[in-house]
Design a protein that fits this description.
Layout lengths: L1 H6 L5 H5 L3 E8 L10 E4 L5 E3 L5 E5 L6 E6 L2 E7 L5 E6 L12 E4 L3 E3 L8 E4 H4 L18 E4 L7 E5 L2 E2 L3 E5 L2 E4 L3 H4 L9 E8 L13 E7 L8 E8 L3 E11 L4 E12 L15 E14 L5 E17 L9 E18 L6 E17 L2 E20 L1 E21 L2 E21 L2 E12 L3 E15 L2 E12 L16 E4 L6 E16 L2 E21 L6 E25 L2 E14 L7 E2 L6 E12 L2 E10 L23 E10 L5 E8 L34 E9 L1
Parallel strand pairs: 1-7, 14-17, 31-34
Antiparallel strand pairs: 1-4, 2-3, 2-5, 5-6, 7-8, 9-10, 10-16, 11-12, 12-13, 14-15, 16-17, 18-19, 18-41, 19-20, 20-21, 21-22, 22-23, 23-24, 24-25, 25-26, 26-27, 27-28, 28-29, 29-30, 30-32, 32-33, 33-34, 34-35, 35-36, 35-37, 37-38, 38-39, 39-40, 40-41
Length: about 725
């Protein structure tokens, strides 16, 4: 009974969701100069550090105390709460009159940051970065970031997909508060129901991540954190509208129930009512209908208690349609109806012993989706229950730490396309252990593994390792390697192919996908004239032992789903340079190279279709005035291989390669005070559109109709505007 009680009161949030190290800089707000020798410590402890010549500090997060104290001569001692932050900038105003009232402390998080002290490389996108995106869901939140690629799945449904390391989004584990939430049937469409405006931050991990979060990841892990209920912002409102007749509302309100209990209500609603066809292909450029997302979060944490609790209930509803314009007789109609109810909770206890804590994550949902593509229907139903127990502790001393635990998953997926059915009912139990060795600040090692048994997929082994070496201060090399696995789900992970007349051919015995992933990255931060710069390079190799193929090349009137062994790989290289030469300009320049190939014909490697080998990225964030800010993002996408359409008539053929193209987005913000913010912007500034994105668009019920071969922008320039209110 005692064991059951302990298991039921755990929290994983503080074991894996939070970085063990807090880093930051302390600066003079007037001069921008670093404050050297400032004392930084956790309240009531002897754990203190002193800022260096650049005003920087690194301090290990206390597992019990979250009140950080900054003490510096000539400045009033200040205290403030640290929640999910891993990196902060503190600007102090000098106290010339020795008055507490004139001393202000401002905490700023960079738009994007890479923590130099964690063994696993984590890139964090803050609210500042998320605010650059026009709107409004998780996929759109990456449009100003070079790490994740964003594109449309097809030219009809309006569904956006992401890619990491040149691999489709479902190859990455997507979590909320480090609970895997965007999985199964939601791996693609679930991005629609996580509003970027709700998020405090996003953490990106390329390649293999921690084994604590599960085995179902190959390309990386993307973790989202909702806005804290403890901040001073009690009401948030964002109203958005664009030239495609879309109107969206995001609203958040936080309130205290008791001294130790907070609650927050999150609302998103969008609607589009006017059908538009600006490219004159007789198909709508937008979706018409409505979407509503509701979420209620509760959390409890008391300074006098070692217990913590956080939980949420969430409801998603969507009813939209597109396809041919309404005035066309016997039109081809795409309809999209989705309903999902889910709940998650984290319960936990932090022991008085340093570094020791234990937690339990619970997540459950019921999800129903119905799609119509002309005369064809696609239905998907999924129920899931997830439980994950974690225990963390120090072995001997803080140089040796461990995380271990158990998990249980029930997953039921039943999908059908016309008369073709696919799905399973699965029970999985698993155990994991992860050991961290950190003999000094210069070197650290994380190694671990997990063993899972599935009633459908049998025994699953997942070994992983990560190494960090600090060559010199702010000069870090990291290595990662491990095995990842993904459950096959051909229908919902390839939604775009159903926007065509291709016959679906499904192998009767689909197997789990498995791949080894190896990564090497180098990051260096430096200063020139006291201004921050950074450069990073990374290379990742993915070798598939077993891969589920979506073959569009065998026959242009078919799509074939089947497994192949040891016949697919992906190489990914990325270089990135970040500079802040003045306090008015922040720039990022990046280049990515992808070599993703598969033996589609069984004998020779071919480049994966619709995946360009070369990409370039530029972002400039310009502070025009203390109240005005301008942001510009430019992407260049190289040519990609196109599937063969040999069975089509000559007038419906496509070339072997796509075009290269430029894509630019821009946004202008005006913030007259702390409460109000107004913004206008444009997506696809150059108004580039993929020619003939829909093949045989005038005959959508013919055998040659295909809207799935999308390699570029489907829609033209889009202008938008909106306002934000924070109280």
């Amino acid at each position: 009974m005692r064991l059951l009680l302990v298991i039921f009161v755990l929290i994983a949030n503080m074991l894996q969701a939070q970085t063990l190290l807090l880093s930051g800089e302390i600066l003079n707000v007037k001069s921008g100069e670093p404050l050297v020798g400032a004392i930084v410590y956790w309240e009531g402890t002897n754990d203190a550090v002193i800022t260096d010549l650049s005003g920087a500090f690194n301090i290990i997060k206390d597992t019990v105390v979250n009140i950080l104290v900054i003490d510096y001569t000539g400045f009033t001692t200040r205290k403030f709460e640290i929640t999910n932050e891993s990196q902060i900038i503190v600007n102090l105003e000098e106290d010339n009159n020795n008055s507490i009232d004139v001393v202000k402390i401002k905490i700023e998080k960079p738009s994007t940051s890479i923590n130099m002290h964690t063994t696993i490389k984590v890139e964090e996108l803050s609210q500042k970065e998320l605010g650059k995106a026009a709107c409004c869901n998780l996929s759109e939140s990456f449009e100003t970031n070079p790490t994740v690629d964003v594109s449309f799945t097809d030219a009809i449904t309006g569904t956006k997909q992401i890619q990491l390391l040149g691999l489709a989004g479902p190859y990455s584990l997507i979590s909320t508060g480090n609970i895997p939430t965007i999985t199964g049937n939601s791996a693609l469409t679930g991005l629609e129901f996580i509003p970027g405006q709700w998020l405090e931050s996003i953490q990106l991990v390329k390649g293999t991540g921690s084994v604590v979060n599960g085995y179902n990841s190959i390309a990386g892990q993307i973790n989202t954190e909702y806005k804290s209920l403890n901040n001073e912002e009690k009401i948030f409102l964002n109203v958005y509208g664009n030239s495609a007749a879309k109107v969206e509302l995001n609203a958040i309100t936080n309130f205290k129930v008791t001294k130790a209990v907070n609650s927050g209500l999150f609302v998103q609603a969008d609607a589009g009512s006017i059908a538009m066809d600006n490219n004159n292909d007789e198909f709508m450029d937008n979706q018409v209908g409505e979407k509503i997302v509701l979420m209620n979060i509760w959390e409890s944490q008391s300074d006098s208690s070692n217990w913590t609790f956080k939980g949420s209930v969430k409801f998603d509803y969507l009813d939209k349609e597109s396809g041919q314009m309404p005035n066309i007789p016997s039109r081809y109609l795409f309809s999209n109806k989705q309903q999902k109810a889910e709940a998650w909770t984290k319960l936990g206890y932090v022991f008085n012993s340093p570094g020791r804590s234990t937690g339990l994550q619970l997540h459950t949902f019921s999800d129903k989706k119905d799609f119509a593509f002309g005369n064809s229907t696609l239905s998907a139903v999924e129920q899931k229950f997830y439980a994950n127990w974690i225990y963390a502790d120090i072995i001997s001393n803080s140089n040796h730490t461990i995380k271990t635990g158990f998990n249980y998953v029930y997953n039921s997926i039943h999908n059908s396309f016309n008369a073709l059915n696919y799905g399973w009912d699965e029970n999985t139990i698993g155990a994991f252990a992860e050991y961290t060795f950190k003999p000094s600040n210069k070197f650290s090692l994380v190694t671990g593994g997990r063993i899972d048994y599935s009633t459908v997929w049998n025994l699953i082994l997942t070994p992983r390792a990560h190494v960090r070496w600090e060559i010199s201060e702010n000069n870090v090399v990291r290595f990662s390697g491990g095995l990842g696995t993904k459950n096959p789900n051909p229908f919902l992970e390839n939604l775009g192919v159903f926007a065509s007349s291709r016959n679906i051919i499904l192998d009767a015995n689909l197997q789990q996908e498995k791949a080894w992933n190896y990564g090497l990255n180098y990051t260096k931060k430096f200063k020139m004239k006291e201004k921050p710069y950074s450069v990073s390079f990374d290379f990742y190799r993915t070798d598939f032992l077993n891969k589920l193929i979506t073959n569009l090349d065998n026959n242009s009137h078919e799509v074939n789903f089947y497994n192949i062994k040891n016949a697919s790989y992906a190489n990914s290289f990325m270089s990135q340079f970040k500079a802040e030469p003045t306090k008015y300009l922040n720039t990022t320049v990046a280049y990515r190279y992808y070599d993703v190939q598969t033996k589609f014909n069984g004998t020779n490697f071919q480049k994966n279709p619709l995946t360009p080998s070369h990409r370039a990225f530029i972002n400039a964030d310009v502070k025009l005035h203390k109240k005005w800010n301008w942001d510009l993002t430019v992407n260049w996408n190289g040519k990609s291989r196109l599937p063969s359409l040999n069975e089509h008539p000559n007038n419906l053929q496509v070339g072997a390669l796509s075009d290269a193209y430029w894509l630019a987005n821009s946004q202008l913000k005006f913030k007259p005070n702390k409460k109000w913010e107004f913004y206008i912007g444009a997506e696809n500034l150059f108004n580039y559109q993929q020619p003939n994105a829909i093949i045989d668009s005038s005959n959508p019920f013919s055998e040659n109709f295909d809207a799935s071969l999308v390699w570029g922008p489907v829609f033209g320039r889009k202008v938008y505007g909106g306002l934000k209110l924070k109280i």
